[in-house]
Prior knowledge:
- By secondary structure, the protein is an alpha+beta fold.
- It has a single domain (9-95), classed as Winged helix-like DNA-binding domain superfamily/Winged helix DNA-binding domain (Arc Repressor Mutant, subunit A).
- It contains four helices and three strands.
- Strands 1-3-2 form a three-stranded antiparallel sheet.
- The longest helix has 22 residues, at 78-99.
- The two termini are 12 Å apart.
Amino acid sequence: MKIFIGDLNKAFESRVRLGMMSILLVNDFVDFATLKEQLQITDGNLASHIAALEKLGYIEIKKQFIGKKPNTSYLATKAGKKAFAEHLDALEKLIKQSVE
């Protein structure tokens, strides 16, 4: 069975989004500061990628106060986890196909 590049999810073409989803899959919730630090990107860059993934329904945003300080955290939705798993599966198949 041939796998084509079109089987990859365009939402995860960006290394930032790929990194975000990887981080979110292994954590329940991750706050903005942690994502920014782990990905080594600017606030604006992170915010734009968050908005794109939220629009697709791949991440959920949770806003709360810790003490009197606002805190925003993120988690991968069921749809996001499924889409990311399918993307990784397609990528793996593409790589295996290339070496055969």
